[in-house]
Write a structure and sequence with these properties.
67% helix, single chain, rod-shaped, 204 residues, disordered N terminus, 4 helices, five-stranded antiparallel beta sheet
Length: 204
Amino acid sequence: MIGMLIAALLSTGGFSRDDAWVVVHDDRSSTMHGDMDDIRLARRHLREIGPGYLWFRHEGKEYVVRDGAAIKTIEEAVQPQEELGKTQGDLGRRQADLGQQQAKLGQEQARLGQLQARAAMRQAERDMHGGKSTKADRDDEHEIASIQHELSKAQQTLGREQEKIGREQEKMGREQERLSKEVQRKVEALIEASLKNGTAKPVD
């Protein structure tokens, strides 16, 4: 699986929307701010340079940085984002579990509907012929009431859990945005420094 972290942000400072950066870990794993074309451009240099370098485009020109300290700085900066992404994945699995529970409730609601329809037909027949309710009728009424009670409790529990997950997702979304901006700020500062100190080498 291709491991990548895409920071979809509006560029700030001296960086524009056309600028991009990619840390090439190997031929399958990248950390980036850009698009798939940028990954392709960055990996063109993998055979020549070897894994573990920063490629970036700034003001229409492409550069690579092979400074190990710079790569480590970026990796440390994106680690909180990656950890948060795993937590968001766990939350997604919880959401999927709730979906399965909701589906089971739907099946129970369908069964309840069938019982209610059967009970209504029997009631209509009794009303038409002046009959009295039977033990089967009373059993159906008891089962209907029991199912309705259990479905109501289960629906309330699911609703509370869904609300809780929704609040967590909203909170994580805000944190992901904050971390993305922080990563971008640090990488832009590193790129500016590499351009000034000459560690950024232009490439074709």
